Structures are given as structure tokens and as C-alpha cells.
Amino acid sequence: MESISQTPAGAGRGRTAIAFDFDGTLIRGGPLNNDKSIHIMVSAWIACREQGLAEFLHPGRLPLDAGRMLSAYIRYPGAPRFQQLAAIVNALVNRRCAAPDTFDGFGLPDVFRPAYERVRAAYNARYSAINNAAARRYWTPYPSAKRTLRALSRGHALFIASGVTEDILNRDLARHRFDRRLFQGIHGGNAQGGNDKGTILKAIRDAGYGRVVFVADSNKDWEYAQEAGAEFFRVREDADFPRLLAALARPLPRIRPWTFSAGELRFMRRKTEALLQRYVSGRPMTPAQITAWINTRK
């Protein structure tokens, strides 16, 4: 499929472009739609433990590490996976939640550079494996998602703008049987952590569309839309899809950023601590066991 950057200037000819996030927007996740957050934190901590950054961890004080990771993660929901990892590593190493763009931003001695590259690779593999296990059993399209896409495609240019890397995004589109023909472009991140949703939205805007709407689920997605000059529509439940059809008839109302609820934060932290406790006590779970435990136990 032609990339946005290859689209001739003015190709939109004033039409409306509607970009959809994928995970959490077209696809609903597990409990509270926050299971991926647990996958991220567990994968990041274990990668640090096994690949050369163990001295910065506190296996005997897991609530401390879980709290630091959660403080970093909630600044980057919906961001590319390696940006989320960088923020979490920075929180564990330096007690700072910002995501450095490069290894040098951690301020660590150069001897740790190879370890960080190993952490990135191990984190990516484990996180992908847990997500894949969840997608096979628990993640499903919102019931109204495909019907809404078909309706919108008859008068609008549709895109996918996802933080998921494009290889995984394409696999999951096929897994859940989305009709790729409905989209003018399907775009995800890359393995280096670049091409975030903001970059994708700006490229869509620059293709000449008269109106760009981003349909997504996270506060970070709202920030991407603001930076790109796009309108934003938030998906929280299936009923939001028919609401979207009606809402597009006029400019979308501006909304304010929001935060995770106290219940969501407790859920993410408690599950992360429990899974890491099993790991440090010599009872690690497989990816399938992890996602089953998250989805079937309180």
C-alpha cells in the first residue's frame, strides 16, 4: 500500500480523513482495557533483570519498582513500545519518567550501552509474545467497529494510525479479518521506535485533506491529535461507534485530557507486582498463562 509520504500534495482534495488507532480502539482489550500496560511493565522489568540492568532493580521491594514503572507508563499510553520502554528504564535507573530519545539520555556509563540494546530486544520479544497470546484468546473487535468502518468508507478517506509496529499490525488485521480495502493507508511504528502516531497524523494532514479526525482511546492519542491539528474522538465502549457516525456531521467538541482512574491504577500495579513476585520466586508464567491470569482472576 502506498505510504503517506508518497501521496502527492493535495491528494486529499479537501476531503475528510478519519484515522483510527487499532489496539484499544478497533480492538477491545482485557479487563479495563489496560492489560497491555501490565504486559509492558512485566516485560520491561524482566528484560532489565536478565540482560544487564539488574543492579538498578529491587526484587525484594517490588512495590517500589512497580510504582516507578507505573509513574512512567501513564505518561506514555498509546506511544510506540520502545518509547514506553525508554520511559520505564529511565524511571528504574534515574527515578525520572521522561523517555530519552537515545541511550545517551540515561546518563549511564557507556559500558551499559550493549546491555540496553539487549534489554530492547528481550523486551520486544516478550511483550510481543504476551500480546500475541492475549490476541488469540481475549482481544476481539468491538462489535460495531467493522460496520462503522464500512459506513464511513463510503464518504471519507480512512486510515489506521497505530503505535504497533507494522508487521504486528498487519498480522492482527488479518487475524481479526478487517477489510484492508476500506483504508487509504495502514500505518504503524517501526522497529527503531519511530513513526509515532503524531508523525502519521501530520503526514495525513499534509496530503491535503480538509479535515482530519483521529479516533482513539488514550490521553497520549489526544496529545498526538492536538499536535497534528486534528480533531479527536474518544472510544471507550462499543456504543461510541454509532455516536461517531452522528458526531461527524459537525465539528467535534473539544475535550480535555483525562487521567487513569484510581481503580485502573490499582489494577495495573497489583497485577504487575504479583506477576513479578512469581518470577523472582522461581515460578514464572508463560505468555499464555500470564494473559489468562490477568483476564480470569480479580
Describe the overall structure:
The protein has 298 residues and is α/β, with parallel strands linked by helices. The chain is built from eleven helices and seven strands.
Brief overview:
By secondary structure, this protein is α/β, with parallel strands linked by helices. The chain is built from eleven helices and seven strands. Strand 6, helix 8 and strand 7 (231-234) form a beta-alpha-beta unit.
* Uncertain residue segments: 5-9
Strand content: 5-15%
Based on helices, strands and strand pairing, what is the structural class? alpha/beta
Number of helices: 11
Tell me the helix content: 40-55%
The beta-strand count equals 7
The succession of helices and strands, N to C, reads: EEHHHHEHEHEHEHEHHH
Features:
alpha/beta; 5-stranded parallel β-sheet; 298 residues; two-stranded antiparallel sheet
Write the layout of secondary structure elements.
Elements: E1 16-20, E2 27-28, H1 35-50, H2 62-73, H3 81-94, H4 113-137, E3 140-141, H5 145-153, E4 157-165, H6 166-175, E5 183-189, H7 197-206, E6 211-216, H8 219-228, E7 231-234, H9 240-247, H10 262-280, H11 287-296
Parallel strand pairs: 1-4, 1-6, 4-5, 6-7
Antiparallel strand pairs: 2-3
